[in-house]
Amino acid sequence: MRKLLIVLIGLQLTLSSECSILPQHIKKCRFGNTTCIRDIANALIRNFPKGIPSVGLKPLDVVHVKDTVLIDDRQEGVLWYFFQLLNQINYGFENTTIIDIKGFDEDPTSSKIIIKGQIPRLIYKGIYKAMGRLLWMVRINSTGESESEFLNFRFDFTLKVQTEYRNGKRYLKIYQLVPNVYVDRWIQWLENFFPENTDLTIAMNRIFNANWVEFWNELEKPILEVFTSVFLSMIEDIFYNVSYDDMFLSNNENVN
Ligand SMILES: *[C@@H]1O[C@H](CO)[C@@H](O)[C@H](O)[C@H]1NC(C)=O
Ligand SMILES: *[C@@H]1O[C@H](CO)[C@@H](O)[C@H](O)[C@H]1NC(C)=O
Ligand SMILES: *[C@@H]1O[C@H](CO)[C@@H](O)[C@H](O)[C@H]1NC(C)=O
Ligand SMILES: *[C@@H]1O[C@H](CO)[C@@H](O)[C@H](O)[C@H]1NC(C)=O
């Protein structure tokens, strides 16, 4: 492993009361050196799957997702559907590879910040709640465990940031995060969808999985909203806690 990457000897965290400082063994990059930033981001992800609480880096291996209503038709007439995901936990972010980074110049507002990455397998587990009516034949009112698996999950997000000064240092504040996500396959299992009829539950799940692309396209907007909040929750605290100036070598500092 190259010298610039993390040396994981004696995890010595430095914490001051005023602000957080990155663990000392994490090498810094120069502003705008996106190759260096990408390599260090990947080293951080590999070496700290449980996060670094002192700087606001949350665990990546277990990510809690806020409850989300994915579908919310008006509950009237003969065809409507309501679908909610509760207590969802996201597994697999610890296996993220950052592929490309843009931005992070000395003036972070001067260019777009773009972060592009890939995750082999992302899993969502939790509880779902479904209600609905499909013509006069089927009434749906079910709840149970849900599990979704996204294979070859790729993402990019573009950040718009402002800087704010605290104690004479610049901190990044995100005012917009625009994500894109792509998957090769979405596999879902909704347990107990028809509580009285296991065969029907299996059939329903099969239909979903055979037609996942249509569901994915239809649900793109709420799915992106979920990922926006997941990505935000991962990076917001770091930017809040560690000043932008402390993340990088200043131009007259030497790489040691
Ligand atoms: C960027 O950082 C890498 C180390 O990751 C270093 O080898 C390279 O010289 C740096 N590039 C510039 C332009 O400073
Ligand atoms: C990091 O920021 C969050 C709020 O964004 C705060 O709750 C937390 O205490 C901070 N952690 C440190 C070590 O400053
Ligand atoms: C993450 O990678 C590890 C090591 O390859 C693997 O054991 C684990 O199952 C992966 N996590 C997920 C959610 O796929
Ligand atoms: C749905 O089922 C729950 C219990 O599983 C019940 O309390 C509720 O009244 C039902 N709602 C409707 C509209 O049938």
UniProtKB/TrEMBL annotation:
Transmembrane segments: none annotated. Gene3D superfamilies: Haemolymph juvenile hormone binding protein. Residues 1-16 form the signal peptide. Keywords: Biological rhythms, Signal. The keyword Transmembrane helix does not apply. InterPro entries: Haemolymph_juvenile_hormone-bd (IPR010562), To_sf (IPR038606). GO terms for biological process: circadian rhythm. It comes from the Eukaryota. GO terms for cellular component: extracellular space. Pfam families: JHBP (PF06585). Belongs to the TO family. This is Uncharacterized protein.
